[in-house]
Write a structure and sequence with these properties.
single chain; 387 residues; alpha+beta; ten-stranded mixed sheet
């Protein structure tokens, strides 16, 4: 009979193991380690994400219930004190590098975006995660509050995070963006809200042959130097070429810009979009900004379905290890969805995997089953009769 690995083992096989071990050797992360290696730590944390475990005791108990699978996982022990110590002391950068190595693999299978233009489209935004200040004093935000902030560059095709930075919540969004070297190609388009308006930074994007689309601030001081006809049936009001006339803003952004005014009938609101792209139609510019909503849905999804709001440790290293592990699991789910052309939502996939994590079944066959049939699935090794 053909031997079939567990679903969890098949997930682990998708990770770039060779590159992971190289990072571990480079940082000497297994030094003085007898049993609980960096790979063991990663698989245990991924197990916590996939199974939705809320505490170290839950993880320890859950793994002991599947101790027959330890040999194939290469796991020798799973004591909560050992897990806690590893998360606290072993550098989180190893998990971070694994995320970016897996990202390259995931990009190969993501579908193209729905727009007709071929420019890569990215969405830039940040979202906060509240923390208890007494437990996480290093994440002090206000007098009695603690918080982290996830600064994310989301690739619109496939809705996968192509770049992620975790800072304390005091860091302003645009300040962090200005200090980043964004890993994007020339002629890419970045869409962001008006909290990122810093004309000096926006001009640096223009000089780097990168397009941006954002909402204009209400107090923007400009002069119209040209105007294009618009299709009012699509909600467009105007399409203008402008230059900034404020004394400081003109110095920071000396070239012309494009201001598109659009009326959203659904929201009964008028928006003004600022961009340095003069090639795309005004309606496309409006639709590009509308696509920015995808990152709000992304933040909402990971907070509801991944373990990044309740943490297994209180140290900064433990928290960052858990955040990066959660993002690795998100990439694994995305990779499976796009590689197999899975038709159901990502949430459905997480539920299926959670229910069958240690079952011996081919993951491709598993995805073709409904949730009711998944519940009746049996391990091949248990199908033999006792009589």
């Amino acid at each position: 009979m053909k031997y079939i690995n567990t679903i969890f083992n098949q997930l682990l096989n998708m990770l770039p193991r060779y590159q992971f071990e190289q990072d571990v050797a480079r940082k000497q992360a297994n030094r003085y380690t007898k049993h609980f290696t960096a790979w063991n730590q990663l698989l245990v944390n991924l197990y916590a994400q996939a199974s939705g475990k809320k505490s170290l005791r839950d993880i320890e108990t859950g793994l002991k219930m599947h101790q027959e699978a330890w040999y194939h996982l290469g796991l020798k022990n799973a004591v909560r004190s050992t897990i806690s110590y590893a998360n606290s002391k072993r550098p989180y950068q190893i998990v971070e590098n694994t995320f970016y190595n897996l990202l390259e693999k995931c990009r190969d299978v993501t579908p193209k975006h729905k727009f007709r233009f071929k420019n890569p489209l990215y969405i830039l935004d940040a979202s906060g995660i509240e923390l208890c200040l007494s437990l996480f004093p290093w994440a002090k935000f206000r007098k009695r509050k603690g918080a982290l902030k996830l600064h994310t560059l989301l690739e619109y095709k496939g809705t996968i995070p192509s770049f992620l930075v975790v800072t304390d919540a005091k860091q302003h969004d645009v300040k962090v963006a200005k200090n980043l070297f964004l890993p994007i190609s020339l002629d890419s388009i970045i869409v962001m809200d008006r909290g990122y308006i810093d004309f000096q930074w926006l001009y640096s994007l223009t000089q780097g042959s990168i397009y941006f689309v954002t909402r204009a601030k209400e107090n923007i001081n400009y002069m119209v130097i040209g105007q294009q006809e618009v299709n009012r049936d699509k909600g467009l009001i105007s399409d203008e070429e402008i230059i900034l006339v404020g004394q400081l803003t003109q110095q920071k952004y000396p070239e012309k810009l494009r201001l598109v005014t659009y009326y959203d009938r659904e929201q009964n609101k008028t928006y003004q979009f600022l961009t340095n792209n003069f090639h795309l139609s005004a309606y496309t510019i409006a639709q590009i900004y509308k696509a920015r909503w995808e990152i709000e849905l992304f933040f909402k999804w990971i907070k509801q379905n991944l373990k990044i709001k309740t943490f297994l440790g209180t140290s900064k290293n433990a928290v960052l290890t858990q955040v990066w592990t959660a993002m690795i699991y998100y990439l694994l789910l995305s990779y499976i969805k796009y590689q197999t052309k899975y038709k159901h939502p990502l949430l459905h996939l997480t539920r299926v995997i959670k229910e069958c994590l240690f079952r011996r079944a081919d993951i491709i066959d598993l995805l073709n089953l409904s949730l009711k049939k998944v519940g009746r699935l049996r391990d091949p090794c248990c199908e033999m009769s006792l009589f």
